[in-house]
């Protein structure tokens, strides 16, 4: 059986960072090269603002979503529509709610991860969101802050979280709440 390996490299020239994404049979893997470019200690990461962590988490989440949608091959317009739906603030808020409600089942959050969720929720921009309720925006920022923290501190755990969140979109609870999410 032939395994399809898709590897994409992205370069952020302003920071000299090189990202590598590999997909093997819908198994998304993120890697940051070189590792010496990112903070290693918990103290260094703790000094970063929650908005900065959310900014990094947003990029990591979108990169994961794009990679996830790359296989099996489909029309680019369909891939883009699926990615946009997955990374919307409303969907991210729904994912966070699912993660917090079923925390004792499949993905156990640590107390440190809970603290980053709180930091991200409390630090969302002072300027209110234009097209959504503030609570939705704060929940999405909280999830992005958690993803940013995990992306910098424990990439394997970040990947497990993102796979779990994407799988949660197919849960019966998520399907019933899909009706509540307005389309733009």
Would you write up a description of this structure?
A hairpin with a 2-residue loop joins strand 2 and strand 3 (27-33). The protein has helices spanning 42-46, 50-69, 76-87, 89-101, 111-122, 134-153, 155-168, 172-177; strands at 5-12, 17-24, 27-33. It has 184 residues and is α+β, with helices and mostly antiparallel strands. It contains 8 helices and 3 strands. It has a 3-stranded antiparallel β-sheet with strand order 1-2-3. Residues 1-26 have low confidence and may be disordered. Helix 2 packs antiparallel against helix 3, helix 2 crosses helix 6 and helix 4 crosses helix 6 (134-153). It is globular, with a radius of gyration of 16 Å.
Outline type: globular
Q: Main sheet?
A: 3 strands, antiparallel
Q: How would you state the average pLDDT, rounded?
A: 78
- The value of Rg in angstroms is 16 Å
> Helical region count?
8
State the total count of DSSP E strands.
3
Beta content: 5-15%
Q: What is the first-to-last residue Cα distance?
A: 41 Å
* Broad structural category: alpha+beta
Please estimate the helix content: 55-70%
Q: What is the string of SSEs from the N terminus onward?
A: EEEHHHHHHHH
Strands side by side in the biggest sheet: 1-2-3
- Low confidence ranges: 1-26
